[in-house]
């Protein structure tokens, strides 16, 4: 690839601007929930749709990206998503009601669902296989640093301005991303012959939407067992089962499930799902402990999470270079070991634990996150055919969202049951919460331990898949024998 570094850097910058915009906006808007409740005189359930609808529409749109990228080209679809995110941000800034804001957030989710799965695909297309770890590490830095500074930026804007500024701040990044995208992203020939898989689209959209909706509304076992949650959850899971059966028989499936026959990709998706449970489990459990049990402010809790994000963002580029140069199982395995140590440390929290100690354990968790989370996904996709990366990324994202949602609900139900049982026995809330958190963090640490052999197998799988270029005449002998055998056949 001539001048690959210069061209790849321009493509990487173009994609970073778009994905940074999405991540920054989503994390900043979470702080506006309380203000929107006051401005529109709404309850928490209504305002929570500002966050929930974004996640649902993004999950429902992702399955389309592979088909649309093949049909119209990755550049067109990615830039269409960025245009959509820009337009929906303007719509949100001009909204006069809560319904208008929720509508804008739903459209932002659709736009993000088109952009996120194509990000790695566009980056991989600009770099050779042996440089994709470094490129994805740089991309991971931006993706992880945006949620870290998002709450700070959002809080500052809410202090000095209006909630509309949280939508307006997207526009400069989006416009710059569009300018770079039109200039640096390469146009591709489209495949006009590919047929649209309507049955598959209907089943995956219904399944993803129903499952994410029901899980987003359930915080306790009673919530999950209610008819309003149980019916869409059951229907959504059945739709996903039928989707798999339909896709296996389809001539032109919406999602190419045969990608899971690649051992490296299959293991990377399993690792990503398990690590997502750890990631979002900590996002759930640490605020419960710091704010509900100990009474710390949201600002203090946010600073603790800032330590995680900064550590992860700092380690991500280093990890990307390491997996390009050395067997990836060593970097991923080290990250999982650090993750396990941090979770065991968080499991020892007591009422007397100082805030700086919690921040130190969370920073250590960020190091493990940066070394293991994104590198596992990168290694599973870096050797796939280029035309399959968009679908592989979409399926990885969808699997992570489904599994992490199930994990969060399971942890929420467990925490609620243990705390309520302890309160009925007369145990103070702080002690009850500490006991529940202790076992929950031990369970997350056990998941990290379970990931270690998977990481080793992933490293072996991708190492075997890498072709070794011939260096002399003897290395050409096996292919020549195979070719001769085929001619004889």
TrEMBL record:
Report the membrane topology from the UniProt record: Multi-pass membrane protein
Q: Which Pfam families match?
A: MFS_1 (PF07690)
Q: Where in the cell is it found?
A: Cell membrane
Query: Which SUPFAM superfamilies does the UniProt entry name for this protein?
Result: MFS general substrate transporter
Among its keywords, does the record have Transmembrane? yes
The record ties this protein, via InterPro entries, to: EmrB-like, MFS, MFS_dom, MFS_trans_sf, Sugar_transporter_CS
The organism's place on the tree of life at top rank: Bacteria
GO cellular component terms, semicolon-separated: plasma membrane
A GO MF term: transmembrane transporter activity
Gene3D superfamilies annotated for this entry?
A: MFS general substrate transporter like domains, Multidrug resistance protein D
Domain called Major facilitator superfamily (MFS) profile: residue spans? 11-463
The principal localisation class reads membrane
Enumerate the NCBIfam families for this protein: efflux_EmrB (TIGR00711)
Report the family membership: Belongs to the major facilitator superfamily. EmrB family.
What is the name attached to this protein's record? Drug resistance transporter, EmrB/QacA subfamily
Give the organism's phylogenetic lineage: Bacteria, Pseudomonadati, Pseudomonadota, Gammaproteobacteria, Oceanospirillales
